[in-house]
Amino acid sequence: MRISLMTTCLVDVMAPDVARATVTLLERLGHEVVFDERQTCCGQMHTNSGYYTEAAPIVRSFVDTFEPALEEVDAIVMPSGSCAGCVRDQHAVVARHEGDPLLEERAAAVAAKTYELSELLVDLLKVTDVGAYFPHSVTYHPTCHSMRFLKVGPRPLRLLRAVEGIEVKNLPESDTCCGFGGTFSVKNEATSDAMVTDKAANVVASGAEFVVAGDASCLMNIGGKLRRTGAAPRSVHLAQILASTKEDPFVPSDTILGRASS
Amino acid sequence: MSTVHLGMPEVRPQHASPSSTLRGSRGFNEAARDELADETLRGNLRHATATIQAKRASAVREVRDWQKLRNAGSALKWQVTDHLPELLEQLEESVTAAGGVVHWARDAEEAGEIITRLALERGAEEILKVKSMATQEIALNDVLAHAGIRAIESDLAELIVQLAEDTPSHILVPAIHRNRAEIREIFLSAMPDLDPSITDEPAELAEAARRFLREKFLDMPGKVAISGANFAVAETGTLVVVESEGNGRMCLTLPKTLISVVGIEKIVPTFQDLEVFLQLLPRSSTGERMNPYTTLFTGVHEGDGPEEFHLVLLDNGRSAVLEDPEGRSALHCIRCSACLNVCPVYARTGGHAYGSTYPGPIGAILSPQMTGMTGTDDPNSTLPYASSLCGACYDVCPVKINIPEILVHLRAEDVDRRRETRGEFHGTWDAALKGASTLMSSPRAYDIAVRSAGALGKLLPGTNIGKLPAIMPLMPGWTDHRDLPKPGPSFRTWWDQREKEKAARGPDSTADGAGDSTADTAADGAADTAADGTTREGEEQA
Fold it and tell me: Which of A107, B110, B187, B411 is the right S-S partner for A91, CB 3.0 to 4.6 Å?
């Protein structure tokens, strides 16, 4: 299939290896990946912060980038549950706030072809064993938007369990938010810190070497807390694990979500 | 007969009166910071919310058609908000027909005046109360105290809060922020006859409260009691009070005069509708299959129960909530408090941080709508932001109120109001998000910015960004607590190099092993080697 990659702004700049891993994985599975350099952001930060008027031009830019090429691709993939959720549920809200039914219609067409990574793999590409190799223990944090808004359910865990060499450990209080919440992490930093402190402690208690999730933002939050407290576990994105093979194994760098070698 | 033109109603919905306990004195963030620093409180809350949450989960798991029940509860509540005026008139007729007297209170002041007048006319010096959020909302105990009337809470937890001269911090468990040792201290200082050898065993504490209240109950015939109600049935005029202790039932049956203060949204259309809510509420609230005491009462009956019954229907901002189609489902709340117990924010800050009688996720959407959000210095303007939008509240809500969606809607309302108010739209966040919007809607400018981020990252020491100076805008909010990855060469930089490489090798390059191509082109990234020796995928290859 021909799959258009929307990296998300955060991954493009702060966690580029997550997007590289997505490309590596999909190409290994025999698919063609295209990347449109006009892409910027889905507008989630603005939307969830209530800046609908400021979100509108971002949504318009997103739709202008992906809508004209919709016929040429089978799917758009985003390695982020919350960004995919924004495209699917919130672009319409922003368009309505702007009184722009055409934008709403075009955004809906883009949303209909947009998938979060685990949805793309399991639902569209019909694969759970992607031939990955990751000889480490991991614990899975389901991330709120993937779990409650997109309802990806057990898809990421099915993908993880099929990885050779992996050991998936139980994460206490896994369903509880890590405290990221976009601008919440800065606006309500004391509350956010209390939340991520507990999440990091639970990751440590799981005994796993890595905490894995489908959202780079949550992983940046948990990973950043683990780094700050000097705790051993690292955060790793689902795509990075699924891209890892015996020939080209994932080794984390000292940078949060970064990769040291291949 | 000639027709009389009555015209359109001239009275517009108004927000809750300032005397209501719906607004704190400072914003959520500031209040939360203090609450978070209290280790005892954190421990009390964590233990209590986790316990109730687990109990609720197992009570809900037993019900195979739980989702259908939720749908039914939600549909009924939508029916109520869609037909509220007619249903209220029907309720007034039914209650009146059953021998009750209906009073309409536009706001907290009117409700306070009506109740005070009724109590004074009956010579009441002391009245007993059934646990009620509506009377908390209108600060009824204070209002009555001004008129020289002492209100005594009969609910154990409300009594603890009252004796401590504290305020409730939870809808169901008002003293959730107190542990047993603290309750023992409160009782010892407020109950002069209490034996000081009392321990903090729950049974002993309950016994002390029982003895204290028993005397009050014995005095009750001939007196006035005040309650709220969980439901008011329009069809029959029946009020329903759901409780655990039985103290409520004593207050509802023993006094000569009963006054019930009920929010106008508490209506259910028919008696049969109770079957849905009496299943949804106890399981969501206390995690019980059925609550121990459910009292249904309709008007007055000679020789049975109160001789006089007064129903005070309270608006206090509810009509204003009803006016907003996007936010009005906040009125569907049945006060179960499941959203509080499951909320990771509430479980850490506690209820007092919200400043309102209605704390937690439901409070964060209800309080600002009832009072209105009046400006950047309005504490209630901060409530819609008191959430990470994790959505756990929506999942557990028995009437499916989409709390995260309404939170975002209220944020937008707050931002829009500030944007339209001259002088209020120039905060740091406003500037940052306006700037980001311009950049992110200009693909070319954004492309340049993203490609420059790696160069910016090189200027910073270390592999990740540690604590940043406090004078920097916004960023210390993150870096005070967690490291931040340093921006390195962007994905698109890598992608370009790979595309160039592929083009140089000819059109079939993708087919002969994408993995190799990835590795090869990544090596080109070495041109971008970080000055401080930070290694990234491409650089390590080189």
Answer: A107
Type of residue found at B279: Q
Give residue B516's domain range. 432-541
Of B410, B443, B510, the CB nearest to A40: B443
Q: Mutate one of B30, B397, B437, B492 to test the A interface: name it (highest A CB count within 10 A).
A: B437
Residue A40 to residue B440, Cβ atoms within 8 A? yes
Check residue B533 and give its pLDDT. 37
A210 and A188 together in one domain: yes
| Interface residue A164 vs chain B (CB under 8 A) | no
* CATH number of domain containing A176: 3.40.50
Tell me the count of A-B CB pairs closer than 8 A.
Answer: 263
Under 8 Å between Cβ of B327 and B409: yes
Is the predicted ipTM greater than 0.90, yes or no?
A: yes
Question: Helix, strand, or coil here: A261?
Answer: strand
Cβ contact A219:A10 at 8 Å = no
Question: B311 or B524: which carries more pLDDT confidence?
Answer: B311
Are B408 and B443 members of one domain? no
Residue B489, chain A, CB below 8 Å: the answer is: yes
Does A129 reside within a domain? no
Contact: B408, A50; criterion CB under 8 Å: yes
Nearest to B441 among A57, A93, A189 (CB): A57
Domain that holds residue A175: 137-261
Q: What angle do CA B371, B376, B377 make, to 5 degrees?
A: 75
Is A191 an interface residue toward B (CB < 8 Å)?
Answer: yes
The rounded mean pLDDT for chain B is 91
Residues B354 and B486 in one domain: no
Average confidence (pLDDT) over B104-131: 96
**What's the token pair of residue A36?**
């449109």
- Determine, for residues B514 and A27 on separate chains, whether the beta-carbon distance falls below 8 Å: yes
